[in-house]
Automatic annotation (TrEMBL):
Protein name in the entry: Transcriptional regulator with XRE-family HTH domain
Organism from which the protein derives: Nocardioides zeae
Length: 279
């Protein structure tokens, strides 16, 4: 049962509380709205302005759980606010913790200010939840993947194309790193977890993974300096800084190149060319 009056009031108040700079939008000299405009929120939630407007006007169909999650993320809701939104819509709130894909407002605020920087938000299993355009141009777009292919570790062992963006001399280490990382997550989350299901799939589908899994190596840490092999611009070396949200096990990863270096110049070029540089 949808509480349409409560839903409309909650959406309107959350929209009016958000400022353009909170979500990475320019304020503009002629803005008169108390907060965000309806069309801005609709764009952030990946829905039509008409659909969102009808919700604030207590009209329209009941949003699905997927649409509810999009509303919660677009409005930068906290976990408590997200759960409240789901209940207003008559849905059971999604689980919290490592299995959650709801990015915290604080992490989103930082991410929204990195539009001109290669940056991404990933889960502990390497699912890309958010990715700046420059990150997609550097490492390849990965936010639209579904199923086990969402996990970069899974793709590493099952899709040869997943290694194309990494220099060959790092392939062996990255294989060990992904196997070691998954081994640790399975130990942390236990049987029945998504991590355990991914490990079972990889044991079935990858001989390389089986060999590394049997080695039972844990504790490997990723290199701060990452070397990517861009299909057009060639080798690009970047330093990776990571900010961890411990409650959700999400990581904000930001890539920067040494100022004045050839890699820095290539990143600046990539920012201009974008994904067109691939073709």
């Amino acid at each position: 049962m949808v509480d349409r009056e409560g839903l409309a009031d909650f959406l309107r108040r959350r929209r009016e509380a958000l400022q353009p700079e909170d979500v990475g939008l320019p304020r503009g000299p002629r803005r008169r709205a108390a907060g965000l405009r309806r069309e801005e929120v609709a764009a952030l939630c990946h829905m039509s302005t008409d659909y969102y407007t009808r919700l604030e006007q207590q009209r329209g169909p009941r949003p699905s759980e997927q649409m509810a999650a999009a509303l919660a993320q677009g409005l930068h809701l906290s976990l408590a606010e997200r759960d409240h939104l789901f209940r207003l819509l008559g849905h059971r709130p999604p689980p919290r913790g490592a299995s959650s894909e709801h990015v915290s407002p604080g992490l989103l605020r930082i991410f929204d200010r990195l539009a001109d920087t290669p940056a991404e938000i990933v889960t502990e299993l390497g699912d890309t939840l958010r990715q700046t355009p420059l990150s997609a141009a550097l490492t390849g777009p990965t936010t639209d993947l579904t199923g086990p292919e969402r996990s970069r570790g899974y793709r590493w062992f099952t899709d040869p194309a997943a290694r194309d963006r990494h220099v060959p001399e790092e392939h062996a280490f990255l294989s060990r790193l992904y196997a070691s990382g998954l081994r640790a997550i399975v130990g942390l989350r236990g049987p029945g977890s998504r991590a355990a299901a991914l490990a079972d799939l990889l044991l079935e589908r990858s001989a390389e993974f089986r060999e590394l899994w049997d080695a039972h190596e844990v504790g490997l840490e990723p290199h701060e300096l990452k070397c990517y092999q861009h299909p057009t611009l060639g080798r690009i070396e970047v330093h990776c800084q990571t900010l961890l949200d411990p409650d959700q096990s999400h990581r904000l990863m930001v890539y920067t190149a040494e100022p004045g270096s050839e890699s820095h110049e290539k990143l600046e070029l990539l920012a201009v060319l974008g994904t067109a540089a691939v073709t």
